Amino acid sequence: MIRHVLRWLAAAGAFVVSLDSTVNVAFPAMAAAFHAPADSMRWVIIGYVLTYALLSFAGGAAGDALGHARVFRAGVAASAAGYLACGLAPTLGWLVAGRVVQGVGGGLIYGTSPALVTLGVDADRRGRALGFLAAAIGTAFAAGPLLAGVLVERFGWTAVFHVRLPLALALLAGSVALPRAPAKARGSRVWAREVRRPAVLRLGALAFAGNAGIFAIWLLAPFYLVERRGADAVTAGALFMLTPLGTAVAAPLAGRLADRLGARAPMAAGLALEAAGLGALSRAEAGTPAAVVALALLAAGFGLGVFQVPNMTALMACFAAGQQGAGGGFAFLARTLGTVAGVAVLAEVFARARPVVGFDAAFSTAFTLAAGAVALAAVAAALGGGAGAARAGG
């Protein structure tokens, strides 16, 4: 019974954290409110994502030693504080500071949720359990943009933070009733040499590339939809949600594929489809048919979903039973470092090119770069050897 509750609690926590997709649709409104250029929104992403990238691995490892539920609960509390701080921020600098606090909470939740959902699950069904978690994350990412469109139109950009505060408080209240230290490991500790193993680094590099590429969409697509296509916030949110919706739909399927076929083929296929979607978006202009844009957004997200679950399954298989928090946390670390790199590089490419060649050409350059990086990762995934075969200490 407790394992079932933990599974749903972890998924709910990851869902609330992943509603951060509401923030992306609010970028144009934020930039206008603070009289800031579009590319300055990168710090709203980086302040949050870089923090939770680092805290996800540390939080997972701490969960192995202290109890995953205890660390998870601390993450929920920090998230609530972050939502409040961001919603009250008077300047862009204060908003970024609030995002750092929010990132601490998100990192602790993301770092412990893979271990919580796989607690007591046999190795040959781990992919399905992680698929359940990924589906919760993808569903939140999908719902966020549409929800944000309504919130921004009616209440302003601060509502994308205020709406999650009661959800976090309810989750915190529910988690208090849990045992103090479920899923606690027996003094297991992760050493640097275990993280440096080729199988772990290779899988992490693939996660890095896949998530670096997808953030061409998360960062630039809102501006394309609003500024170039003239869409209102609700319409932009409806189109933008197709990428995370694709990820959510693909996650359960990907979990079953990982359990039956292993990680290599689904990872390669998912990255190839993501690259194709990004490549199609690199050709999008103001007059591109909406159906074409929608299909490309959906394909990129579906491809990422096919890739992510097998990738995390293989990464966690590289770590011993008492190190599943560290394994899941490392998966999120690799993903989010990719996100930070993708945002930083693609924002810089776009910002430098736009004054010289205009929006369309700068947009195309950024997406072409993203598609190329993900395509190379797809080739590496297809050619790579036994992902996840190496066990900790082996």
Structure description:
- With 394 residues, the chain is mainly α.
- It has one domain (2-383): MFS general substrate transporter like domains (Growth Hormone, Chain: A, Up-down Bundle).
- It is 80% helix and 0% strand.
- The chain has helices at residues 2-18, 21-25, 27-33, 42-66, 68-87, 92-117, 126-155, 159-162, 165-176, 192-195, 198-228, 233-240, 242-261, 264-281, 290-317, 324-357, 359-383.
- The model is unreliable at 386-394 (pLDDT under 50).
Features:
394 residues, mainly alpha, Growth Hormone, Chain: A, 17 helices, 80% helix, globular, disordered C terminus
Q: Outline of this structure?
A:
The model is unreliable at 386-394 (pLDDT under 50). It is built from 17 helices and no strands.
Topology (elements, then pairings):
Layout: H1 2-18, H2 21-25, H3 27-33, H4 42-66, H5 68-87, H6 92-117, H7 126-155, H8 159-162, H9 165-176, H10 192-195, H11 198-228, H12 233-240, H13 242-261, H14 264-281, H15 290-317, H16 324-357, H17 359-383
Helix pairs in contact: 1-5, 1-6, 1-7, 1-9, 4-5, 4-6, 4-16, 5-6, 5-9, 6-16, 7-12, 7-13, 7-15, 11-12, 11-14, 11-15, 11-16, 11-17, 13-15, 14-15, 14-17, 15-16, 16-17
